[in-house]
Specification:
The protein contains 3 helices and no strands. The chain is mostly helical and about 110 residues long. About 5% of the residues are buried. The model has no long low-confidence stretch (mean pLDDT about 85). This is Selenoprotein O and cysteine.
Length: about 110
């Protein structure tokens, strides 16, 4: 990607839409040096096979993702309305470990 000057975000998005078992990817067409892409893509697919995750773990990771995503949505709402009174843990005093943190609006 670096040699091609590829946009990392776009490249990873396209890669995320490629089937893991697929021998080809539409991402290939965005590379000038297609032979280098083919060699990299073969290594990438081989690594995916060695790092395969079983279905039970995949389901647990998906469940955890949903839990974390719900909390991120909650945090987003808090940050969108910083001056709204709250009764939850986001309105509590900072924890002991955070007493020395200094943040500003520009952080």
């Amino acid at each position: 990607m670096a040699r091609e000057g590829s946009d990392y975000t776009r490249t990873f998005r396209m890669l995320s839409h490629t089937e893991q078992q697929s021998a080809s990817s539409p991402l290939r067409d965005t590379f000038i040096d297609r032979a280098a892409f083919d060699a990299w893509f073969d290594r990438y697919r081989a690594r995916l096979r060695t790092e395969a995750v079983d279905d039970a773990l995949r389901q647990e990771l998906h469940r955890l993702h949903e839990v974390l995503l719900a909390e991120l949505h909650r945090l987003h709402e808090v940050l969108r309305q910083p001056f709204t009174d709250r009764d939850d843990d986001y309105a509590s005093r900072p924890p002991e470990w955070g007493k020395r943190l200094e943040v500003s609006c520009s952080s």
